[in-house]
Write a structure and sequence with these properties.
The complex is a heterotrimer of chains A (about 350), B (about 250) and C (about 200). Chain A has about 350 residues and is an all-alpha fold. Chain A has helices spanning about 1-20, 30-40, 45-55, 60-85, 85-95, 100-125, 125-135, 135-165, 170-180, 180-205, 210-220, 225-240, 255-275, 280-285, 290-310, 315-325, 325-335. Chain A contains 17 helices and no strands. Among the domains of chain B are: about 5-55; about 75-150; about 205-240, no CATH class. Chain B has helices spanning about 5-15, 20-25, 30-35, 40-55, 65-90, 100-110, 120-125, 135-150, 160-185, 200-205, 205-210, 215, 220-225, 230-240. Chain B starts with a helix and ends in a 6-residue tail after the last helix. Classes of the chains: A mainly alpha (about 350), B mainly alpha (about 250), C mainly alpha (about 200).
Chain lengths: ~350, ~250, ~200
C-alpha cells in the first residue's frame, strides 16, 4: 500500500513537471551571439557568470540600471583602449584567443581608468575630490553623477552663449542649443569649440608652441580628440609656467621656460611608464597570473628607473636610493614625484584660444 | 579607518590566503589605494617581510628511517600490552607468574580467535603448572582484554530494516519532486539542463554586465570618474579651464 | 560507498588496510610519518618527544581502523590527530616548557641522531651562519609564543598550504574562525618581529 502511494505521488509530480520542460523560451538571433560567447567559456567561468547573474538579480532596479549604464561606458572604454594601441599591436590583440584577448583588454581598461582618473582629479576642484574620496564607496557614483549633471548644465549654457556669440550665431540658434537634451550637450559644445578655434587660428595664427603640421593633424581629429590634444598641450605649458622648479627648497626661481617644459614632459613620460605597457601585456598573454604579476611589476619598475635617469628626474644618490626601495615604497616615491602633474587647473585668462 | 583602507586590507588578506601569495603581494605594490595611503603601504611592506621571514625558516630536519622506526615501535607496542598483562598477573602478592606466561597467554588468545571463555583461559593459565592461580584472575584478564578490544571494535548501529528504508527514500524523492515543481511554478529561474541546453535568455541579455562584473562593481574613485562618457569628461575639463566648476 | 576523497592516496591505503591488506598500513606510515613529524617539529619545537608523538598519532590510526570513514584528505585527518595530541601534550605543561626553551633557547638540541636539529638542510655559508641563527631563533620563539590554535592555523596555512576549509577541519572550527586566527597570528608576529621586518635587503 505504501509503495503504491509513493508511486502515485511520483507520477503526479512528473505530470506537473512536463509542461515546465515544454515551456522552454525561444532563442532570438540577438541572443545568439551572447549564447555563443557564453558557451565558449570554460565550465568554471560559466559557473562564475551564473553566480554573478544571481547577484545581479538580487540588486535593486536602480542598482541594476546603474550597472547597465556603466557596462555601456566600460564598453566604450574598451574600445578607446583598443584604439590607443598602435595598429600592429592592435592587430595582434585581435588575433589572440578570446579568453586572453578579454584579459588583456580588461588590463588595458584598468590602465585607461587610472589615466582618466588622474586627469579628472586634476581638473576637479580639490574640495570635490576630497568629498568623493571620503564618501562611502557605494555612494560615490551617485554623488559624482549628481555633481556632474549640475556642472554640465551650467557649463554648457555658458559655453553655448559664449561660443555662439563669438561664432556669430543667431539668438534662436543659441536658444535652440540650450534646449538640447542632456546627453547631446557636451558633444555639441566640443564641436562648436573646435569650429571657433579653427576660425581664430585663421585670424590670429597658431597657438603658442605649435607648428602648422601638428595643428593640421589635430584638426583632422574628431572633436573629442582635438580638444584633448589641445588641452594637454595647454596644460603642459601651464604647468611649466607656474612650476618654478621641483627643487627641495621650493623657492621661486626665474626659470628658463624651456627647461620647465622639458621637466613637465619628463614627468609625463614617467607617468606613462607607471602604466603597464600594452606590448608587455600581449607578450605575457599566455603566462600564469603569478608570473604575469611579477613580470609586470618588474618591468614597470625598470621602465620607471630608466625614465627617471633619462629625464634627470632623479640622479646620483637619490636614484641609488630609489633603486633599492621595496616595491610599495618605490611606487609611493614615484607617486610623490608625479605630484606636480596633479596640481589643479587654473583658469586661463590670457592664453585663451 | 578610511573605507578604501578597509577594502584594500580585505584584498591584502585574501591575497595572503592563497598559497602563491608572494608574487601577488608584490603586484599589490601598485595598487591605487597605496599611492595615497602611507599606513597601508607600511602594512603591505610589513606583511611581505613577514612572508619572507617565515619562508626563510629552515625546513625541519627529518631523522633518517623515521618511518621504519615508527613501524617497528608500533609493532613492538604489542610488547607493552604484554607488560601490562604481566602487571595484572602479578597483582596478587603471592602469585608469581612465570616470565613468559603473558606472552603465551596472548599468543594463545590470538590463536583461539574466538571469544575465550573464562574456563578456557583458566585452563590455559593452568598449563603453567608451577602457578597457583588466584581466584578471578581469568575474569580480570578477560576484562582487560575486552577493554582493549572495545577500542577497536566498531559498534554497528542498528540499521533500519530494508523495507522501511526503501519507503523512506521513496517518500523523500516524492517530496523533492513536489518541491521542485512548486519552485518552478512560483519562481522562474534558470534551469540547469544536464546538457546545458537551456540557458536563461535574460542572463544572456546581460552577459556584458556579467562578464565585466568585477570592473563594474569597482567603486574606487578612479573607476567612478572614468565611467563618465568621454565628451562629458572633456566638458568638465573645459569648465575647469574656464573657471566655471563649482564646489 | 565512493566519495570525493577516494583519489587521495592515504584514503586508498586506509581502505585497502581496512579490507585486510596489512602492507597498506606500512605504506601509510612510510608516506606520511615525515609530514607529521615536520608539523610537530614546527609546532612544538625540536626538544619535544616528537617521534613518540608520531608513533602515538599512528597508534590512533590503528585504533580507528574499523570505524574510519574518509571525510577529508588523509593528511588532514592525520593533522587533526596530531593537533589534538599536541594540545594535550602542551596542556600537560611538559612540552610547553621544553618547546619554549628550545624554540627560543640558545642551547643545542640533543637528538637521537646526534646531530644538532637546528641545522639547515643546506650548509650555511660561514658568514651568514651566526647571523641567521639569531633571526631563526627569534622567529621560532615568536611562533612558539602564539596560542596553540593560532600557531597551528598559521603553520598549516604557510607550510602545508592547506586551504582554510581544511584547516577548519583540523582545528574543529569554522573557516571564519580560521581566518580570524591567522589574522591575529600574523598581527602578533608582525609586532613581535618588527625589528627584523624593518631591515632592508641589501
Amino acid at each position: 500500500m505504501k509503495r503504491l502511494h509513493t508511486l502515485l505521488l511520483l507520477l503526479a509530480a512528473l505530470a506537473f513537471l512536463a509542461p515546465a520542460f515544454a515551456l522552454r523560451a525561444d532563442q532570438s538571433d540577438a541572443l545568439a551571439g551572447a549564447r555563443a560567447r557564453f558557451e565558449a567559456l570554460a565550465p568554471a567561468e560559466r559557473a562564475r557568470i551564473e553566480e554573478r547573474w544571481q547577484r545581479y538579480q538580487s540588486l535593486s532596479p536602480d542598482e541594476q540600471h546603474e550597472l547597465d549604464v556603466r557596462a555601456q561606458r566600460a564598453k566604450e572604454l574598451r574600445q578607446r583602449a583598443e584604439q590607443r594601441l598602435a595598429p600592429p599591436l592592435r592587430a595582434r590583440v585581435q588575433e589572440l584567443p578570446a579568453a586572453q584577448r578579454e584579459r588583456i583588454l580588461s588590463e588595458l581598461v584598468d590602465n585607461e581608468t587610472t589615466r582618466i582618473g588622474a586627469r579628472m582629479r586634476a581638473i576637479l576642484p580639490p574640495e570635490v575630490v576630497q568629498r568623493l574620496e571620503q564618501a562611502r564607496p557605494e555612494d560615490r557614483t551617485r554623488y559624482f553623477a549628481k555633481y556632474q549633471a549640475q556642472q554640465r548644465k551650467r557649463v554648457t549654457n555658458y559655453m553655448f552663449e559664449r561660443l555662439g556669440a563669438r561664432l556669430g550665431l543667431a539668438k534662436e540658434e543659441i536658444d535652440g542649443l540650450k534646449q538640447l537634451p542632456e546627453e547631446q550637450r557636451a558633444a555639441r559644445v566640443l564641436e562648436l569649440r573646435q569650429r571657433l578655434t579653427q576660425a581664430e587660428t585663421r585670424e590670429q595664427g597658431l597657438p603658442p608652441g605649435l607648428d602648422q603640421e601638428q595643428w593640421d593633424a589635430w584638426l583632422a581629429l574628431p572633436p573629442e580628440e582635438f580638444f584633448e590634444r589641445l588641452a594637454d598641450h595647454v596644460r603642459e605649458r601651464q604647468l611649466a609656467g607656474v612650476d618654478a622648479g621641483i627643487g627641495r627648497s621650493g623657492a621661486r626661481r626665474p626659470e628658463i621656460p624651456e627647461q620647465n617644459l622639458q621637466r613637465v614632459r619628463g614627468l609625463r613620460r614617467l607617468q606613462e611608464a607607471t602604466q603597464a605597457e600594452p606590448a608587455d601585456l600581449v607578450e605575457l598573454a599566455d603566462t600564469t597570473p603569478e608570473v604575469r604579476a611579477e613580470e609586470v611589476v618588474a618591468r614597470t619598475r625598470e621602465r620607471c628607473l630608466r625614465v627617471l635617469a633619462e629625464e634627470r628626474l632623479a640622479e646620483g644618490a637619490e636614484l641609488e636610493r630609489l633603486q633599492h626601495l621595496p616595491a610599495p615604497a618605490f611606487a609611493g616615491a614615484v607617486h610623490e614625484l608625479l605630484a606636480p602633474l596633479r596640481a589643479p587647473w587654473k583658469a586661463q585668462v590670457q592664453e585663451k584660444h | 579607518m578610511k573605507p578604501d583602507c578597509r577594502s584594500f586590507r580585505i584584498r591584502l588578506e585574501s591575497t595572503l590566503e592563497g598559497a602563491r601569495a608572494q608574487s601577488e603581494l608584490t603586484s599589490l605594490a601598485w595598487h591605487e589605494h597605496l599611492l595615497a595611503c602611507a599606513e597601508c603601504r607600511a602594512l603591505l611592506e610589513s606583511e611581505e617581510a613577514l612572508e619572507l621571514l617565515l619562508e626563510s625558516l629552515p625546513k625541519p630536519h627529518l631523522p633518517p628511517r623515521l618511518a621504519r622506526r615508527v613501524l617497528a615501535r608500533l609493532r613492538a607496542g604489542d610488547e607493552r600490552r604484554e607488560a601490562q598483562l604481566d602487571r595484572l598477573l602479578e597483582l596478587d602478592a603471592d602469585t608469581r607468574a612465570p616470565g613468559d606466561l603473558a606472552r603465551r597467554v596472548l599468543a594463545g588468545l590470538e590463536a583461539e580467535r574466538v571469544q575465550p571463555a573464562e574456563t578456557r583461559l583458566d585452563a590455559l593459565l593452568e598449563r603453567a603448572r608451577a602457578v597457583d592461580l588466584p581466584e578471578g584472575l581469568g575474569k580480570r584478564v578477560l576484562a582487560h582484554v575486552a577493554e582493549e578490544r572495545q577500542l577497536t571494535r566498531r559498534r554497528k548501529p542498528v540499521l533500519m530494516r530494508n523495507s522501511v528504508r526503501l519507503a523512506a527514500a521513496a517518500g523523500l524523492l516524492a517530496l523533492l519532486f513536489a518541491w521542485a515543481v512548486w519552485h518552478k511554478s512560483t519562481a522562474p529561474t534558470r534551469e540547469r539542463d544536464v546538457a546545458h541546453e537551456s540557458v536563461d535568455p535574460r542572463m544572456l541579455e546581460h552577459i556584458e554586465v556579467l562578464e565585466q562584473w568585477d570592473f563594474l562593481r569597482r567603486n574606487d574613485l578612479d573607476a567612478v570618474l572614468s565611467t563618465l562618457p568621454h565628451s562629458d569628461q572633456l566638458l568638465l575639463e573645459m569648465g575647469s579651464e574656464e573657471g566655471l566648476l563649482g564646489g | 560507498m565512493a566519495n570525493e576523497f577516494d583519489d587521495d592516496p592515504g584514503v586508498r591505503w586506509m581502505r585497502a588496510w581496512q579490507a585486510g591488506d596489512e602492507s597498506a598500513f606500512d605504506a601509510l606510515v612510510e608516506a606520511y610519518s615525515g609530514q607529521v613529524y615536520a608539523l610537530l617539529t614546527r609546532f612544538l619545537g625540536p626538544r619535544a618527544n616528537r617521534e613518540d608523538l608520531v608513533q602515538e598519532v599512528f597508534l590512533r590510526v590503528v585504533r580507528a581502523r574499523e570505524r574510519y570513514e574518509p571525510s577529508a584528505r588523509f593528511s588532514t585527518f592525520l593533522f587533526r590527530i596530531a593537533y589534538n595530541l599536541s594540545v594535550n601534550e602542551t596542556q600537560r605543561g611538559i612540552a610547553r616548557e621544553a618547546g619554549r626553551v628550545e624554540l627560543g633557547g640558545a642551547d643545542h638540541a640533543r637528538s637521537p641522531g646526534g646531530m644538532g636539529e637546528l641545522a639547515d638542510e643546506r650548509a650555511p655559508r660561514p658568514d651568514e651562519a651566526l647571523e641567521r641563527d639569531d633571526v631563526v631563533r627569534e622567529v621560532r620563539a615568536a611562533i612558539g609564543r602564539l596560542p596553540e590554535n593560532q600557531r597551528m592555523a598559521l603553520l598549516l596555512a604557510k607550510y602545508e598550504e592547506l586551504p582554510y576549509s581544511e584547516i577548519a577541519e583540523v582545528l574543529g572550527s569554522s573557516e571564519k574562525a580560521v581566518k580570524s586566527l591567522i589574522h591575529r597570528a600574523r598581527e602578533s608576529l608582525r609586532e613581535t618581529l618588527a625589528a627584523y621586518l624593518e631591515e632592508e635587503d641589501a
